[in-house]
Write the structure tokens for this entry.
Amino acid sequence: MIRPRSSSARLRTVLLLLGVLVLATSCGWSLWDSPMTTVRPKSDFGKWIDEIFMLISWTTLVIFILVEGALVYACWRFRDRPGAPIPQQVHGHTPLEISWTIGFAVVLIIIGIPTIKIIFRTQEAPAATALKVDVSGHQWWWEFRYPGLEVATANEMHLPVGQTVVFHLHGPDVIHSFWIPGLGGKRDVVPHRVNQITLTPEAPGEYLGQCAEYCGTSHANMRLRVIVHPAGGFEQWVKAQQAPPTEPTAPLAQQGKELFSKAACVGCHTISGISAGRIGPDLTHFASRKTFAGSLMMSTPDNLAKWIENPAHMKPGALMPNLGMTADQSKAIAAYLLSLK
Ligand code: CUA
């Protein structure tokens, strides 16, 4: 025999349901409002994906309401009541089984046809006029090269608004996934093959991205920023990037340049005219970037000095070795790097 529920148990259930409701609505709100939201896309590619997402969401919402509605109705209508007879026992209902099989096939067609269309559309070859960007996913930072423009940068990509861009995705070490939620994606970055994404940013602004495939200790610290320029801004940026690095004037930065040139730094990093290393990020215009180390930290003198002194302390598993720099040496190199506008 089932005991009737006490009023305090009922109250607990109601409070629990209210809590779930509050949590669910706040998740929904942050989904809409966060800087990495996918539901306010700012590119053609993002909008296509969003259309499919919304189609699936609304279709499944209708199914959810119908199924849960039928369930709640059945629970209420056929609930146990004192003295009630056992309800009529049935087994199987051929017309019903045929109709819901057809119903689900129709739902699959409603979702499947537009999805397949979008899959093909997002795989189309880009126009020859598209801007090309070679993206390399490294443990744990992003490298961006603009073939033909002779520009190389890291973690922060610059694009012109309204111009179609094709990203060629290279994986020099392990599998990563390139994802800028506001502009669409994501797509895997796979060693020994070159995947690509084509999209056209539709609004200037700053878009945050994140590696979306577990790739080792600092996977979560493998971030990126995309700066979409209004008309003319991109060309200015390219011009500044193509210029030779600024010569440091402050004594501390000059000392830093001296230290950098003689240390193992040169084996991994390029600074145009100073070094030609290709293992780590190109630092020629380091100070033109707001962030460093997989876009994990703001490029401040303090952060940078701490990073040079002990990279793994700042980003777990960092592949940049600890070169045993003293605090003063690190400060000097930081000052030099921050002079490279
Ligand atoms: Cu790269 Cu996760």
Remarks:
- The two ends are 79 Å apart (CA to CA).
